[in-house]
Structure formats: structure tokens, C-alpha cells
């Protein structure tokens, strides 16, 4: 009797990896569906962000920018879209750390699965959840008067940039989850996301920040995606005052690609060393 290897059964290594990636992603998504409290908590983040920054603090920030509150909310929403993508790092890091502690990754590695799929499935699940979160934010934004002005094609391009950013941050979270000692440590590292999220052109434009803070804020990957999506949505944006701001659309693609190119191989290398 002839033994058939996995790549032969699935037709090719790419097909094998794709099928296994979907299996792992489905596991993570079903885990969320079976724990509705965790799913609800995840989906409440974008809802609370719109309510807090759009209405509780919106008028004050609008005064600082010398614009009415409704115009500030138009400026704000693309920033909140990107913030939601960034805050997903925490959930990814904690989930991966729990899988490491529970031996889930070790069991997956013992199966005839594509090694890349063990981690890529987590990233795919994050991207699917990000699409759900963005759908909620778009609906809330429309309800509160926000709108895109440049047509369906530009909206799709803007959402594509946001999903690409989430994919990059997912690999950051995967790598951190493999490196930390456990879920408790992962929760503490989540505090590092706040400087990344706030020192950027998300809530207020960088030209309102002190000079020493404006430079790192302008070069923050979040800022490039936020500025690019504002342009694609046709929303109000502050004038670009730096090279990276003038080339925001290009950098909104290059930053996530560079992050994935760095974190993916490092995560795979760390996965191979687990349990040694």
C-alpha cells in the first residue's frame, strides 16, 4: 500500500498550507462564537471609542483644532478605524500566549499540518474579525453623520489599507504571544500599545503636538494609514508637513509589508524553538 504525503493529497504545498490555514482560522473564530461574552467585549471596543472620542471629547478637540464638532468627527473616524486595528494586538498576543501555555501549538505541530498555517490561521482569523469591527464602525459613523465622499472604489481602497494594517499588527501580536511567559505577561505588555496608538495622527493632528513628539508621530505606521484613509474617504485632514505625510498612501502600504516581512519569519523561528 502506497503512503501518500500531505502535499500529494492536497495537490500542492500551497493548497495544503491554504487548507490548513483556514482550518486553524475557523478554530479561532468558532472559539469566539462559543464564548459570546468575549466576542461582545471585543466588539464593544469600537463602539465605546466612537462614543467617547466622538461625543464626550469631540467638542473639546474640535475647539483645539478650531473646527466645529461635526467636522472634528469627520476627521476623527478614520483615526478610530486605525486605532481599532491597533488595539487588536492585545487580543492576539493574549490568545497566542494561552495557546502556548495550554499546549495547543505543540499539538498542532505534531499533526501533519503546514508549519506556516499554525500561525497564519491566527492572522486570518484576526483579519476576518477586523472586517466585522470595521463594518460596525462604518455603520456607527454613518449613523452619527460621518460619510465618505469619493465613491465606492476609494472606500474599498481605504478599507483594504486598514485590513492590511491589521494583518501586520496581527503578526506583531503573534510574535509577542510566542515570546512572553504567559497570558498574564501579555496583558501587561498590552500597555505598550497605547503610546503607539496615541502618538499618531489619530485623535489630533501632529502639528498640535510638541515638536519633539511630532516627529515620531509622523513616522508612526498608524499615521500613514490614517492620513491615507482620510484622503481616500475624502474627509477633512490636516495639511502634510513632512515627507512621510506627503507620501502617506505609499507608506500606508510599505509600513505593513515591512512589519510582516520582519515579524513573520521571527515568529516562525520562535515557533520552531518552542518546547526545546
TrEMBL record:
Residues 37-274 form the ABC transmembrane type-2 domain. GO terms for cellular component: ATP-binding cassette (ABC) transporter complex. It comes from the Bacteria. Keywords: Antibiotic resistance, Cell membrane, Membrane, Transmembrane, Transmembrane helix, Transport. One of its GO terms (biological process) is response to antibiotic. It is found in: Cell membrane; Membrane. GO terms for molecular function: ABC-type transporter activity. Pfam families: ABC2_membrane. The chain crosses the membrane at residues 39-63, 75-97, 118-146, 152-179, 248-269. It is a multi-pass membrane protein. Belongs to the ABC-2 integral membrane protein family. This is Transport permease protein. It comes from Nocardioides turkmenicus.
Amino acid at each position: 500500500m502506497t503512503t501518500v504525503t500531505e502535499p500529494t493529497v492536497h495537490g500542492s504545498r500551497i493548497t495544503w498550507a491554504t487548507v490548513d490555514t483556514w482550518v486553524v482560522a475557523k478554530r479561532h473564530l468558532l472559539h469566539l462564537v462559543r464564548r459570546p461574552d468575549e466576542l461582545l467585549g471585543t466588539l464593544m471596543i469600537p463602539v465605546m471609542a466612537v462614543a467617547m472620542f466622538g461625543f464626550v471629547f469631540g467638542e473639546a478637540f474640535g475647539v483645539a483644532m478650531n473646527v466645529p464638532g461635526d467636522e472634528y468627527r469627520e476627521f476623527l473616524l478614520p483615526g478610530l478605524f486605525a486605532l481599532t486595528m491597533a488595539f487588536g494586538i492585545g487580543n492576539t498576543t493574549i490568545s497566542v500566549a494561552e495557546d502556548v501555555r495550554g499546549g495547543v501549538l505543540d499539538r498542532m505541530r505534531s499533526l501533519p499540518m503546514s508549519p506556516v498555517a499554525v500561525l497564519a490561521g491566527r492572522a486570518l482569523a484576526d483579519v476576518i474579525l477586523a472586517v466585522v469591527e470595521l463594518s460596525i464602525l462604518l455603520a456607527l459613523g454613518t449613523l452619527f453623520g460621518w460619510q465618505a465622499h469619493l465613491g465606492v472604489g476609494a472606500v474599498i481602497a481605504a478599507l483594504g489599507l486598514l485590513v492590511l494594517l491589521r494583518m501586520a499588527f496581527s503578526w506583531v501580536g503573534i510574535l509577542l504571544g510566542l515570546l512572553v511567559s504567559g497570558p498574564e505577561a501579555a496583558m501587561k505588555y498590552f500597555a505598550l500599545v497605547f503610546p503607539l496608538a496615541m502618538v499618531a495622527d489619530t485623535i489630533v493632528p501632529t502639528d498640535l503636538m510638541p515638536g519633539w513628539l511630532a516627529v515620531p508621530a509622523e513616522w508612526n505606521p498608524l499615521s500613514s494609514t490614517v492620513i491615507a484613509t482620510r484622503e481616500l474617504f475624502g474627509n477633512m485632514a490636516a495639511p502634510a508637513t513632512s515627507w512621510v505625510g506627503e507620501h502617506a498612501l505609499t507608506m500606508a502600504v510599505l509600513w505593513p509589508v515591512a512589519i510582516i516581512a520582519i515579524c513573520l519569519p521571527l515568529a516562525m523561528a520562535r515557533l520552531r524553538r518552542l518546547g526545546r
